[in-house]
Design brief:
By secondary structure, the protein is α/β, with parallel strands linked by helices. The chain has a single domain (2-204), classed as Flavodoxin domain (Rossmann fold, 3-Layer(aba) Sandwich), CATH 3.40.50.360. The chain has helices spanning 16-30, 50-61, 68-73, 75-86, 103-112, 156-165, 182-204; strands at 2-7, 34-39, 89-93, 119-122, 126-129, 135-141, 169-175. Helix 6 (156-165) links the parallel strand 6 (135-141) and strand 7. Helix 1 runs parallel beside helix 7 (182-204) and helix 4 (75-86) crosses helix 5. The termini are close together. Bound molecules: flavin mononucleotide (FMN).
């Protein structure tokens, strides 16, 4: 099984979210998973520029052949999309920033959520995710505690929409209240790590 780890953990060794990812890696390394890592701190995704959006419309929406030069504008986005398509399972690890995904994670989704590659629009059917049959696990931590549906919570909810739109069966494991309730932070992380072992234990066996 090919597992792609996509991580954005600028906090490095002291990252809270890394503690969740480490728990996931321990499970994966005990099995036979073929692990590939995309570290978005070292390999920042591209943003849409006028050149890139032009190629995206011409090629992905218009179905046109584009020049080698134009294909080059999309090279990094295409590389990230192909890497995701080639994986059987995704583990995405990133903290909440300003109530949502960190910008680098959103840019990664903008890179990989390409029409005709990871989702499509089929006449009479509507939107279809092209990555059906794959599983995704989103690992995150936040300073505050947010119950499902909280008006400020756009990190877990948005990530679920992004992954679900591409067809992934998605699980999220999060530890909230890290800064709001410091005395409970270690317990919240330990609880999340236990849930990760449970979810991944089932997925890889
Ligand atoms: C730039 C920045 C923005 C943040 N925004 C939020 C936020 O909107 N809501 C929240 O609950 N916590 C927020 N936090 C707190 C982090 O989500 C929290 O400390 C998290 O555990 C950090 O994860 P890390 O240690 O893996 O980097 C923010 C932290 C930073 C550095």
């Amino acid at each position: 099984m090919k597992v792609l780890i996509v991580q954005y953990l600028p906090g490095g060794e002291s990252s809270n979210t890394k503690k969740l990812l480490d728990a996931a890696l321990a499970v994966l390394k005990s099995g036979k998973a073929d692990i590939e890592t995309l570290d978005l701190v070292k390999d920042l995704p591209d943003f849409f520029t006028p050149e890139r959006i032009g190629v995206y419309y011409e090629r992905n929406y218009g179905g046109q052949q584009v020049s080698v030069q134009k294909m080059g504008y999309m090279a990094k986005m295409d590389r990230m999309a192909a890497q995701l398509k080639a994986a059987d399972m995704l583990i995405l690890a990133a903290p909440m920033y300003n109530f949502s995904q960190p910008a680098a994670v959103k840019a990664w989704f903008d890179s990989v959520m390409q029409k005709g590659v990871t989702w499509d629009l089929n006449p009479g059917v509507g939107y279809v995710g092209l990555l059906k049959g794959k599983k995704a696990l989103f690992l995150s931590t936040s300073g505050g505690q947010y119950e499902a549906g909280h008006p400020y919570e756009h990190c877990i909810s948005l990530t679920k929409v992004h992954l679900g739109f591409m067809g992934f069966e998605t699980e999220t494991v999060t530890a909230g209240g890290i800064n709001q309730f410091p005395d409970k932070a270690a317990g919240a992380i330990a609880q999340a790590q236990a849930k990760i072992r449970d979810v991944l234990g089932k997925w890889i066996n």
